[in-house]
Amino acid sequence: MAEGDNRSTNLLAAETASLEEQLQGWGEVMLMTDKVLRWERAWFPPAIMVTFLLLLPGLNQHGIISKYIGMGKREINKLLKQKEKKNE
């Protein structure tokens, strides 16, 4: 019984070490993302806007922007219908 537990523990340790190794590179990305989201630097907001504007043509080409605009319109229409029902 102890031998099975030992193998299980060793397997779990190996899987954990492998996962840790795979995720190690994402540490830098997460730190930078955190800094951007907290706007720790004055140039982050303009840099985000310029980056977003550069992505717009590609997003529009794949229909992503149209999809989300359509979703937004549907939600607004739902809310307006609910409001009308409430007022009746």
Automatic annotation (TrEMBL):
- Which superkingdom is the protein from? Eukaryota
Q: Transmembrane segments in this chain: where?
A: 42-59
Q: Does the keyword Transmembrane apply?
A: yes
Q: Quote the InterPro entries the UniProt record gives.
A: ER_autophagy_membrane_reg (IPR052114)
**GO cellular component terms listed in the entry, alphabetical order:** Sec61 translocon complex
Q: Which UniProt keywords apply?
A: Membrane, Transmembrane, Transmembrane helix
Name this protein carries in UniProt: ARL6 interacting reticulophagy regulator 1
Which organism is the protein's source? Propithecus coquereli
| Upper classification of the organism | Eukaryota, Metazoa, Chordata, Craniata, Vertebrata
